[in-house]
Amino acid sequence: MRKAICPGSFDPVTHGHLDIIERASKIFDEVVVGVGTNTSKNTLFSTEERVDMMTLATSHLPNIVVRQISGLLVTYCEEHGIGSIVKGLRFAGDFEYELQMAQMNARMSDVETILLPTSSEWSFISSTLVREIAKVDGDISEFVPEVVAQRLAERNKG
Ligand SMILES: Nc1ncnc2c1ncn2[C@@H]1O[C@H](COP(=O)(O)OP(=O)(O)OP(=O)(O)O)[C@@H](O)[C@H]1O
Ligand SMILES: [Mg+2]
After folding, report:
1. Which residue's CA is the nearest one to ligand 1's atom 25?
2. 41, pLDDT greater than 90
3. Which of 33, 79, 85, 94 to pair with 115, CA 20 to 30 A apart?
4. How far is CA 72 from CA 34, 38, 101, in A?
5. Which pTM was predicted?
């Protein structure tokens, strides 16, 4: 079975992430969505909330599993029989970062990196922008799955 991982902080998951995950699910037999916990980022949503939202947002895809991940990504891949890392590319900045990560991961392991270009429809979306717009009561419903729009609205009320 060909397994891949889509890692990220997903704080929160957006249509940009889901586009990459859905496309990866057509290429691989199983895709693990790895929700990162050892991020240097100070996340808005807890790990449990990020996993929960991702699970709901991907429930229509049969070959996706959502897992909380920590530690070195290539070690996780080796321990779980995952041969490929799939990442999305939005702009030149993503490319520079992902190229360096891909080369480092290739030096440390046999895990391959697949970089998928973003769909033009979602290329401008980042979780950071979604959080910033939601914080000042802007409408983010177009950019995120329903469950995320609801949770962000609840947070703003509370
Ligand atoms: N709109 C998008 N289109 C394609 N890929 C995306 C998009 N947004 C994020 N990704 C990809 O998803 C993966 C996980 O990214 P991450 O969790 O950092 O999301 P992010 O939107 O960049 O969040 P943040 O703004 O908090 O950094 C990365 O490979 C990233 O390039
Ligand atoms: Mg990012």
Report:
1. 128
2. no
3. 79
4. 12, 9, 12
5. 0.96
- For residues 140 and 151, the answer to whether their CB atoms sit within 8 Å is no
Looking up residue 141, the CATH number of its domain turns out to be: 3.40.50.620
CA–CA distance, 5 with 32 (Å, rounded to integer): 5
CA nearest 23: which of 72, 66, 87?
87
Domain of 57, in residue numbers: 3-157
Q: How confident is the model at residue 96 (pLDDT cuts 50, 70, 90)?
A: very high
Q: Among this protein's residues, is 87 annotated catalytic? A: no
Give the span between the Cα atoms of 33 and 71, in whole angstroms.
15
Q: How many distinct structural domains can be found in the chain?
A: 1
Element (H, E) at 34: strand 30-36
DSSP string for residues in 44-90 = SS-HHHHHHHHHHHTTT-TTEEEEEE-S-HHHHHHHTT--EEEEEE-
Ligand 1 site, residue 128, Cβ cutoff 6 A: yes
